[in-house]
């Protein structure tokens, strides 16, 4: 039997990149998946269609997580579709900004924290009533939370905040049987890591890694599906580094 059969899952930012691969991985493993998007309605519809064509169950759902009430609206929409029970919450939606300390504006800084930290925090708060014993939350951290690479200090700080939240959420929710973990990808060639479109960019990424190939979004999706499953039942409060051995 599929390891997530009968489970419901929400993946934020599932229209593209790592979120898309995660939605497909969870569906492949048997979950009904809510495919969240903000601007990428067509892309989200394509993910839903791919899941359904493979015999799975999926719905798309939208919310702008840069807005203060975005997580509240998304949680309301999720409850309207799945009813009272959410087994898997993957707070993946995020933005990055490669900007020097000198050139970072207050607006850029606030937007990074709004989407990457405030939204996951309030999504967990708002969906808490739907989470139950056995539910699993996975947040997205990053290699740059613990290694200084490029000019990513404000973005990196948002991921450091995620590593902190994982510990506090796991402690607070553990007594309810809810596990909370993060995955920290290295460089994954998505729209966010667009520098990987050049050979120099790919060589830079591979040069940091023990494993000498480019990551694929599904390398991350598969790890998230593992953390969501009963095989990870004794893992909580962890940030799992899924980066091909980057910066060892
Ligand atoms: N790629 C990497 O190298 C890498 C490395 C480490 C960690 N990560 C983390 O992994 C996660 C996914 O990254 P990715 O590379 O897959 O990024 P991506 O390809 O740029 O996709 C970003 C996703 O986030 C959604 N999103 C962006 N702004 C939003 C907003 N205001 N409201 C709601 N959704 C919004 C987008 O939705 P729409 O397109 O529908 O607007 C899209 O689905 C992020 O948290 C990122 O920080 C990525």
General description of the model:
Keywords: Oxidoreductase. It comes from Undibacterium terreum. InterPro entries: KR_dom (IPR057326), NAD(P)-bd_dom_sf (IPR036291), Sc_DH/Rdtase_CS (IPR020904), SDR_fam (IPR002347). With 248 residues, this protein is of the alpha/beta class. The chain contains 7 helices and 7 strands, in the order βαβαβαβαβαβααβ. The chain has a 7-stranded parallel beta sheet, sandwiched between helices. The model has no long low-confidence stretch (mean pLDDT 98). Bound molecules: NADP nicotinamide-adenine-dinucleotide phosphate (NAP).
Helix content: 40-55%
CATH architecture: 3-Layer(aba) Sandwich
Which stretches are poorly predicted, pLDDT < 50 over at least 5 residues?
none
Instruction: Count up the domains.
Output: 1
Secondary-structure topology with pairs:
Layout: E1 8-11, H1 17-28, E2 32-37, H2 41-53, E3 58-62, H3 70-82, E4 86-91, H4 106-127, E5 131-140, H5 153-174, E6 179-185, H6 199-208, H7 217-228, E7 239-242
Parallel strand pairs: 1-2, 1-4, 2-3, 4-5, 5-6, 6-7
The structure holds NADP nicotinamide-adenine-dinucleotide phosphate (NAP).
NADP nicotinamide-adenine-dinucleotide phosphate binds next to helix 1.
């Amino acid at each position: 039997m599929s390891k997530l059969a009968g489970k419901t899952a929400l993946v934020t930012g599932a229209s593209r990149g790592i979120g898309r691969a995660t939605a497909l991985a969870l569906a492949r493993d048997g979950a009904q998946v809510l495919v969240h998007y903000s601007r990428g309605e067509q892309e989200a519809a394509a993910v839903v269609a791919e899941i359904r064509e493979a015999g799975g169950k999926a719905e798309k759902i939208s919310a702008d997580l840069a807005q203060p009430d975005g997580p509240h609206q998304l949680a309301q929409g999720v409850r309207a579709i799945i009813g009272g029970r959410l087994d898997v919450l993957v707070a993946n939606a995020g933005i990055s900004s490669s900007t020097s300390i000198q050139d970072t504006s207050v607006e850029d800084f606030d937007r990074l924290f709004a989407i990457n930290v405030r939204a996951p925090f309030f999504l967990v708060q708002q969906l808490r009533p739907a989470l139950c014993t056995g539910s699993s939350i996975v947040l997205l951290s990053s290699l740059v939370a613990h290694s200084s690479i490029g000019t990513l200090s404000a973005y990196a700080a948002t991921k450091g905040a995620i590593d902190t939240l994982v510990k506090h959420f796991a402690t607070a929710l553990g007594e309810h049987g809810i596990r909370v973990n993060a995955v920290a990808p290295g460089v994954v060639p998505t729209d966010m890591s667009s520098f990987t479109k050049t050979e120099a960019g790919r060589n830079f990424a591979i040069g940091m890694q023990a494993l000498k190939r480019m990551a694929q979004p599904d390398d991350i999706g598969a790890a998230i599906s593992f953390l969501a499953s009963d095989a990870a039942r004794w893992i909580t409060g962890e940030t799992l580094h899924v980066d091909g051995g980057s910066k060892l």
